[in-house]
């Protein structure tokens, strides 16, 4: 598939998902069902098909560290922005959770595989599972819990117990752990082929699911609500789509990493805000309108920024 065809597929799947939900052609819970298929079938199969034969390199540690770096910077960045723009704590936490973490699986994996082919899969899986997912499950969850009321904290139970439950009930993470055990064995070709076929379903279904769940602030919200979130929305997306990938590029270039890994890290750093983090932010009551708008608007804005980053990286290396 040519790069032009690949770039066409992204907006087609996103728009198709968005239209089919608004046209009520698919059931209302289709996004949840399709997302569950990706989480329980597509992504674990892709991990089991690729990671057991993955060549381990020291630079993989830096790939896994990238989301932690971006999240850590977001804590300081949005703390300063809150002081400068006089936002409340809820806005700061919503921005930190959503824009401190990127959509490295549902959007990042399909996009990078379209840009660079299957060989980039391992790098993306390391970034997503050991980076983004763990960062959301541990410091992200702790940060959100710190700002809940005492009654709400009691409902969530022990923080450590909640974190461990999230880790060891998440199918892709379990598949990742199991895949390292499988490195000790040779997987039969017939089983590997089945896993590969199931893994290939991730690209269209994940993109369609993102489009189906995409929320835009000017659709279903009052003009007053849209104006209220315009400033933090803009600042948050500038951090996530522009500032974050530039910082990662400069740091990883200085560290003299494998150019392929630099490309993967920079593009993943520039992905739209994380949908799962947005859901967590909404459920915990941190500016629900803003939290819902960040992934939706971010996805639309990330298309030109990601394409620009791709061509800049291709010309640089």
Automatic annotation (TrEMBL):
Pfam families associated with the record: Mem_trans (PF03547)
Domain of life: Bacteria
Record-linked InterPro entries: Mem_transp_PIN-like
Compartments, record wording: Membrane
Membrane topology field: Multi-pass membrane protein
Keywords: Cell membrane, Membrane, Transmembrane, Transmembrane helix, Transport
Major place of residence: membrane
Ranges that cross the membrane: 7-25, 31-48, 60-81, 93-112, 124-148, 168-185, 197-216, 236-255, 267-286, 292-313
Protein name, entry field: Malate permease
Organism: Leptospira yasudae
